[in-house]
Amino acid sequence: SFPTRRSSDLAKITVFVQPSNNLPGGLDDLGARIDNAAKLATAGVEVGLAVLGDAHNARNVTQEAGLAVSYGLDPDRALAAITSVPARAYGMDAHYGKVAPGQVANLVVWGGDPFELSQRPEQVWIRGSAIAMRSRQSALRDRYLPRVRR
Q1: pTM, rounded to two decimals
Q2: Which alpha helices (H) appear in the chain, and where do they start and end?
Q3: First to last CA, the chain
């Protein structure tokens, strides 16, 4: 026979979900729903948000958090789901996942709600050093946009 588990035992695990990955692609994700993060959080499960299987799209994790919020996840829990929850789940919370003395100082300052697609980071600090807010894409925009507007 299988061991029985109490719901209090299940609440001690962290479940990572990707809200936008809500269509069944196989038998293992038949129960995928866009509101899974909110449902799990309401049930007392610690929820982490991720971009599963696509490491090169990790930059979209705030979009995933925005989707989770729009489908019922509390915004504070969504922020924790992309910061302190993953750090704790991977055993890295002694140094990562929160803004506090003794933590690795990685910080992003947004001009508005970080879960809104129309917002963008104003400044990023990595290990306490501000990084230039310039990319290849912004350099190309600055180079060619004036020509287009002529």
Answers
A1: 0.81
A2: 7-10, 36-42, 61-70, 75-81, 84-89, 136-148
A3: 75
Cα Rg for the chain, rounded, in angstroms? 19
Q: Dihedral sign, CA of 116, 117, 123, 124?
A: positive
Laid out side by side, the sheet with 129-130 consists of 107-110, 121-126, 129-130
Please tell me the distance from the alpha carbon of residue 83 to that of residue 124, in angstroms, as a whole number: 15
Only one residue has tokens 């930059």, namely 59
Q: Distance (Å, rounded) from C-alpha 78 to C-alpha 66?
A: 8
* Dist. CA 84–CA 5, nearest whole Å: 26
Residue 125, Cβ neighbours under 10 Å: how many?
Answer: 13
For residue range 54-96, what is the model confidence (pLDDT) as tens digits? 788 998 999 999 999 999 999 999 999 999 999 999 999 999 9
DSSP, collapsed to helix, strand or coil, labels residue 122 as strand
* Residues in Cβ contact with 126 at an 8 Å cutoff, skipping those fewer than 6 apart: 106
Closest by Cα among 44, 41, 52 to 79? 41
